[in-house]
Specification:
By secondary structure, the chain is an alpha+beta fold. It is built from 14 helices and 31 strands. The strands form seven sheets. It has an eight-stranded antiparallel β-sheet with strand order 18-17-23-14-15-22-19-20. A hairpin with a 2-residue loop joins β19 (about 340-345) and β20. The structure holds guanosine-5',3'-tetraphosphate.
Length: about 525
């Protein structure tokens, strides 16, 4: 029996955590799962050092470096709601993967290290959220360690992100001396926490009334009360509309490692984060939640696990009910796709998923026919807008290290292109034996090198090219660029979509090209960080 998609969608919250590396994303992920009782002790999903258990990092390289390049999806229940937590790539380069994951969520938790404030990766990821209209909940982490002042952090968010911070919890005690938290919706009391040893269980929470807090915490309580009074005067109250419009962000304080403030954050995901909404269609209008099934493929990943050498496509259900085994249509080709092997993916575990509702993520195994950005639908046709391809800024010629492994080399490069790990470009001048890899961030090249060697048995050599700009042009523009003696640049074709690209070392050369060939188009591509 399948349930009612609108009712099921209403109790779903699909979100991601965005942060700079080391701010505590893995720790918070575990803590959230722990509170939702998806795991019995922290350390089961992610974790470093002694806390490492089942890693959701599939690749050896990820484990060696402690980074997460692929995306995992975790589903758990809290207060009768179903929470889908999508992992964003944790490495320090912006990559298109992140954008794709954020295309599949309805809300993001922006995690900030109390000592460091906003960091580079936080900024980039926040830009993506703003670009996609994803509302952001802020969690200031590591309040158990010395850090910035709470008001200072709010100022930083406001001035740098033009985002109005609306605190929902407020710390009693400065960073490094956390006495407790005030839930600003219930200001006359303090929540005091006793962390369990190692932080592997939920912290004990005690409600302390205002008189007792004043007597026991003295200065710290007075100061928190004054700050709260100041905040309420300046109108920093959470409101749904500006939050969902990306104008304000509810702010929470805590320490993920000790599980402090995590329950309140989890409650906020349930209470504040929006449920799945009708999704805009390419042709205009939206696909209602209770329309027949539709889904968006936001990530394709091969060989995540050596035990299953296959390709898995992660699809977010956008409308209707997904039933395993149903035959759906791939919008790009109009061809049917059978969903016999549909899984939910949790860390390295896979279990068959029988039913999924809007907001849920399904892993489709044996999905060689599917591409990132694909729409799948049943009955009534639908197609969501394509995922944007970002302007690459790094370019390198790739060659097989061993000429005897050319077949494996070709297969690997084609596969990585289809997955969107890098963009693959070719030109008549260089020939197909020497494709050019184009990346938004250089870490993408490391992933290519690692996967080519370990998965496809074809080690590669990369020779960086001295270009940093790509512009879209047409066939004539491409020929003109290759002919020109004045402009330093080179024309290539992007395999994925057949677009002609001009590569240039800097803006000076794009300007020269435009002066020399005023009739040839030179269109900017979408910048990764606008
Ligand atoms: P990431 O996924 O964002 O990269 O961060 P991760 O959770 O791995 O956390 C980075 C470091 O910050 C870890 O320390 C972790 O224990 C610590 N951390 C996370 N949350 C808190 C917190 O609330 N308070 C404090 N004091 N520390 C926190 P590490 O030394 O790199 O690893 P470990 O050996 O302690 O696990």
């Amino acid at each position: 029996m399948s349930g009612n998609p609108a009712a099921e969608a209403a109790r779903r919250r699909t979100f991601a955590v965005i942060s700079h590396p080391d701010a505590g994303k893995s720790t918070l992920t575990e803590a959230l799962a722990l509170h939702a009782q998806a795991i019995t002790s922290a350390g089961a999903v992610h974790g470093k050092g002694a806390r490492r258990g089942v890693a959701s990092d599939w690749m050896e390289m990820e484990q060696a470096r402690g980074i997460s390049v692929t995306s995992a999806v975790m589903q758990f229940e809290h207060r009768g709601q179903v929470l889908n937590l999508l992992d964003t790539p944790g490495h320090s380069d912006f990559s298109e993967d992140t954008y794709r994951v954020l295309a599949a969520v309805d809300c993001a938790i922006m995690l900030i290290d109390a000592a460091k404030g906003l960091e580079e990766q936080t900024r980039k990821l926040f830009d993506v959220c703003r670009h996609r209209g994803v509302p952001v909940i802020t969690f200031v982490n590591k309040w158990d360690r010395p850090g910035l002042e709470a008001l200072e952090l709010l100022d930083e968010i406001e001035s740098e992100f033009r985002l109005r911070p609306t605190p929902v919890t407020w710390p009693v005690g400065i960073a490094g001396d956390l006495r407790g938290l005030v839930d600003v919706r219930e200001p006359g009391r303090m929540l005091r926490y006793t962390r369990t040893p190692g932080g592997s269980k939920e912290a004990l929470e005690e409600v302390v009334d205002a008189d007792r807090a004043a007597a026991e915490e003295g200065e710290d309580w007075t100061r928190a009360a004054e700050e709260l009074a100041l905040l309420s005067e300046t109108g920093g109250e959470h409101e749904r509309e500006p939050f969902e419009a990306g104008v304000s962000t509810p702010v929470f304080f805590g320490a993920a490692l000790s599980n402090i403030g995590v329950r309140l954050l989890l409650d906020a995901v349930v209470d504040l984060a929006p449920a799945p909404a009708p999704r805009p269609l390419r042709a205009g209008g939206t696909r209602p939640i209770d329309a027949p099934f539709s889904g968006l493929v936001f990530k394709v990943q091969a060989n995540m696990d050596r035990a299953h050498r296959d390709r898995i496509a992660f699809m977010r259900v956008c409308s209707g009910v997904f039933e395993r085994g149903m035959t759906v249509t791939r919008a790009a080709t109009g061809r049917p796709f059978a969903t016999k092997y549909a899984h939910s993916v949790f860390g390295q575990d896979r279990t068959s998923v029988e039913l999924a509702y809007p907001g849920d993520v399904v892993g489709l195994v044996n999905a060689a026919a599917l591409r990132v950005g694909d729409t799948l639908y049943a009955e009534k046709s639908a197609e969501f807008p394509p995922m944007p391809t970002f302007a690459p800024e790094h370019f390198a010629v790739v060659r097989p290290a061993d000429i005897g492994r050319t077949k494996q080399f070709r297969r690997g490069i084609a596969q990585l292109d289809e997955e969107g790990v890098v963009q693959v470009l070719v030109s008549d001048r260089r020939g197909e034996q020497a494709p050019v890899l184009a990346a938004v961030g250089p870490m993408q090249f490391d992933v290519v090198q690692h996967r080519m060697e370990n998965e496809f048995g074809a080690a590669v050599r990369l020779e960086p090219l001295g270009y940093s700009l790509a512009r879209a042009t047409d066939k004539d523009g491409a020929e003109a660029l290759n002919r020109s003696r004045l402009v330093h640049g080179e024309a290539m074709v992007r395999i994925r979509d057949g677009v002609h690209l001009g590569l240039f070392p800097n803006r000076w050369h794009t300007s020269s090209f435009e002066r020399e060939f005023p009739d040839s188009p030179l269109e900017p591509l979408i910048a990764a960080h606008e």
